[in-house]
Amino acid sequence: MTTTTTWLADDDHRSQRLEAIASSGAGVDLHSHSRHSDGDWYPADLIADAQKIGLSLISLTDHDTVAGQQAARTAADEAGMLFVTGIEVSLTIEGRLYHVLGYDYDPSAATWDKFVQGRLARMERYQIDQFEQLKERGYEVSPDLARGDDGRLLAQPLAVALHRSGKAPTVEAGQQIVRGLPIRPRIELTYQEVAEFGDLLQPGDAVFSVAHPARQQPGVSVRLNEADLITFKDTIPLVALEATHPYHSSTDVAFFASLAARHGLAVTCGSDAHGERHRRPLQHLPSTLCRNSWQYSATAPKRALAVPSSRTLANRREQSNGVPICVGVPGTKLQGPGIAGYSRPVAARPRSLSGQIQRPRRHPRPSL
User: Are 75 and 43 in contact (CB under 8 A)?
Assistant: First the structure.
């Protein structure tokens, strides 16, 4: 099954602008957050600030939601800025936590409706666990006391339930009780198993880059190891690693750029901006930070990795200092747009540079 997407770059003019941004070093930021997850901005305000610092391309990558994409796209169009749909998905591999950036998708596609419903179920599981911990500490209240008219748990559900049960005179007093108890937020309950997420995806739904792969923070993410990288490649359409990130040292950047190269992946860059309250602003990152070229063998073409391009790229070659640069997928018909120099296969199975058909994956990933 192939999903045809024209939601992003759907005309030649936009394609030409994408190509120009990728080759010129223009300012980009492929990792940012709005109030739809944990950022400070409304989507339109995010775009306004991106315009102020001279960005030519931006992606809004809120945690586990697609809610702000249309508003951001509209604001970017009005500002004359190119916009790439994005999301930061919370995934686990055998209990190890990761964040993975998804790009170039249609937020109205059925896949994302299913994803959001699953996310709501995981959030409920997380909140029910909080109620169980509250009970263990002497406050037995029913979660149903904290539900709204739609049946979902309200914000601050523990405090609301304590108030409505009569155990706290106000919601604020309930919050004080909760803050005084050793209740552990088991954030891992909100993460989805990567295999389950991979089963949800349809070919062509999106492409992915592992976010801040050097980040090691309990309850948030672990440093990416090579075995888990291979699992990602085999399970979802992984095309890149976010080598450039504010948490990364120069050593980290070099290490993950090298790891990406060894596995035939692109590199992406992003500020992980959340806003002034978090002291994490947008950054004017040259698009060249989202590029990486290497040679697979003495005779194999190099691959130039760039920010998204929607032009059909099949079998396209460019010259760079006399070295052919492959920015398409040999032997396949492609449709755009794509991230990090990739475009999506429409029907043909991916082939290697030698023309050999690769072993099938659950989600075909363009080969380099």
Answer: yes
* First and final C-alpha spacing in the chain: 23
Location of structure tokens 């030519």:
56
What does the angle CA 280 – CA 213 – CA 90 come to, to the nearest 5 degrees?
80
Token look-up 């991106």 returns 50
Instruction: Quick: pLDDT tens for 300-335.
Output: 222 222 333 322 222 222 322 322 222 222 222 223
**Each residue's pLDDT tens digit, 100-147:** 999 989 999 999 999 999 999 999 999 999 999 999 999 999 999 999
Which sequence spans correspond to the domains of the chain?
26-116+189-289, 138-181
Q: Which residues pair with residue 59 across a beta bridge? A: 84
CA distance 258 to 287: 18
Residue with tokens 């860059």: 269
Query: What is the full DSSP assignment across 280-312?
Result: B----EEGGGG----BSSSSSPB----S-B-S-
User: By the 8 A CB rule, do 90 and 192 touch?
Assistant: yes
Instruction: Give the span between the Cα atoms of 199 and 206, in whole angstroms.
Output: 13
Q: Which amino acid is at 34?
A: S
Q: Is 51 exposed, middle or buried (0-12, 13-18, 19+ CB in 10 A)?
A: middle
The residue to which tokens 């003019």 are assigned: 13
- Angle of the 157-164 helix axis to the 171-179 helix axis, nearest 10: 120
**Reduced to 3 states, what is the DSSP secondary structure of residue 57?**
strand
363 φ, ψ (degrees, to nearest 5): -130, 105
Alpha-carbon gap, residue 331 to 274, rounded angstroms: 41
Q: What is the DSSP letter of 330?
A: T
Fold of 26-116+189-289: TIM Barrel (3.20.20)
Question: What is the average pLDDT value for the chain, to the nearest integer?
Answer: 80
